[in-house]
Amino acid sequence: MLDRTTKMNTEVEIELTAGGLHEALRRVRHAMCREETRYYLDGVFMHHVARVGALRFVATDGNRLATADIGTAEGAETIRPVILSRSFVVEALKGTSKRRDAFRHVRLAIGADGDHVT
């Protein structure tokens, strides 16, 4: 049996519905920071919340705070917290915007150190 730290050091892929991902990102994108001097706030923080069984998306610019939760996908409990870059958020919103594809599954791959998301 792998312990939790070993399991979290591997790359993790989770499947989400396109509509769920789109809705969560849409609800928090307005709070992402746009100032170059506060680059560390320029994105969306995503992490798993075990007690509510959800993926939580959080964005702030220092004045506004926005959160959105979506139901947990299989394997989500092993992901490391990660910051989704502004460019990823914009592209993900474009790619998941069609209503007819709302129930289509998208795969989110998170690198071992949380250093890349595809």
Protein described:
There is one protein chain. With 118 residues, this protein is of the alpha+beta class. It has one domain: DNA Polymerase III, Chain A, domain 2 (Roll), CATH 3.10.150. Helix content is 22%, strand content 31%. It has 3 helices and 6 strands, in the order αβαββββαβ. A 4-stranded antiparallel β-sheet has the order 4-3-2-5. A two-stranded antiparallel ribbon has the order 1-6. β2 (43-49) and β3 (54-60) form a beta hairpin. The radius of gyration is 14 Å and the shape is globular. It starts with a helix and ends in an 8-residue tail after the last strand.
Q: How are the secondary structure elements laid out?
A:
Blueprint: H1 4-8, E1 12-17, H2 18-28, E2 43-49, E3 54-60, E4 65-71, E5 82-85, H3 86-95, E6 105-110
Helix pairs in contact: 2-3
